[in-house]
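A quick aside before the break. I want you to see a complete sequence-to-structure record at least once, exactly as it would be stored in a machine-readable document. Don't worry about memorizing anything.
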Amino acid sequence: MADGSTPPDPGPGGPVPAVRPFLVTAGRVAPDPSGRTMPVETQVVATAEGLAVLDRLAFEQHDIVAACRIPQSIAEIAARLRLHLNVVRILAEDLRTAGQLTVHVPDTGVTHDASVLRRLIDGLRAIPDSRGVLRDTD
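That is the input. The structure line, written in tokens, reads:
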């Protein structure tokens, strides 16, 4: 820094982006006028058209399409690209409208089924930690 001190530690993910979320979305706070948002578990994948125009897309849109060469959830994209969740939702909807992403919204009846959540929890507990130890069950 100018005064000779060291800059603050940016943390494990690196420095925080300097661009404010409302600038990336041109002030929009919802993907469409109805105000509906995509669930965080919504899966998105790049289309052939999206990959073909990848070099012509703007910054964050380019990064989203590039990350979606394999299916990704909205939450995964936000975490991977260090973008605000609503920014990813809005840009993903823009990219879907332009034909550059395919969006697969999960069936809400299945996602709210307690048996699905129980199987998910059991599956996560079956993954050993870094020492190879399984988590205790309840």
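Two observations worth writing down. The longest strand covers residues 43-46. The chain has a mean pLDDT of 76. We'll return to this after the break.
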